[in-house]
Design a protein that fits this description.
CATH topology: Deoxyribonuclease I, Chain A
Radius of gyration: 17 Å
Largest sheet: 6 strands, mixed
Distance between the termini: 27 Å
Strand order of the largest sheet: 6-7-8-9-11-10
Mean pLDDT: 93
Number of helices: 6
Shape: globular
CATH class: Alpha Beta
Number of strands: 13
Length: 255
Amino acid sequence: MWAGSRFAELKDFLSHNDFDILCFEEVAGVGAAGGNILSSRDFFTKDCFVELQSVLGEGYASELAIAQYMASNPATAYFGNAIFYKKEFSLLQKDVLPLYTRDTPFPTDAKTFEEVGRNVLHLTLGKEDKKYEILCGHLAWGTTKKEESHQTKQNSMLASYVQSLQQPWIAAGDFNIAPDQPSIIALEQYGHNLTKEHKVINTIDPTNHTRWEEFAPGEAIDYIFVSPDVQVEDFKVLDTVHMSDHYGLTATVII
């Protein structure tokens, strides 16, 4: 959600659409600023997680996994992942898979982001007699969309984790690498890659992305994976809705 930089557009979209489960990356706390993400643009005094809950209302419950505190305001400024779900689901368990932990706040003026803390939020949700494993992650950054060694190390942890999950499961997020890279191929051993199967060639919003010239004509770096027992009725890239520096992804599934 780009630290709330296009929150008005996101709020409008959420107000006119209905989802059972929502996954957000780059959720930011008050004063978060660093690199391409500057919540000071129009959200410096607000917590994205709190504002999302306000927009979605009492019908949703939510969980947050903070991955990194920021030097711009170490007490309140963070980046992390969040999952919101309708209260017709019950939370059976919350887990956080740490991929990389940084012990100090991340500097505001940093130009590279290999050492930003990373994690994956995993919720086990229940409804009637069924269980659902939902994962939301923002994986390691690299200088290109080709996988680097630190990404391989962290992403292999996710692949091992997914392998251990009970089906059915859904994993979504900004993975920061292209569909032909080893970590993506490794995850495809355990589930369907909807981004690749629907021949998506770009998930970056050129109207918002400050580094678009480096990616033109586009890169597919955002994904939804589902376990083999999940039936997918519909999958879309929201390329006409400008809520972030990336496009959103939606899937309609039957489990």
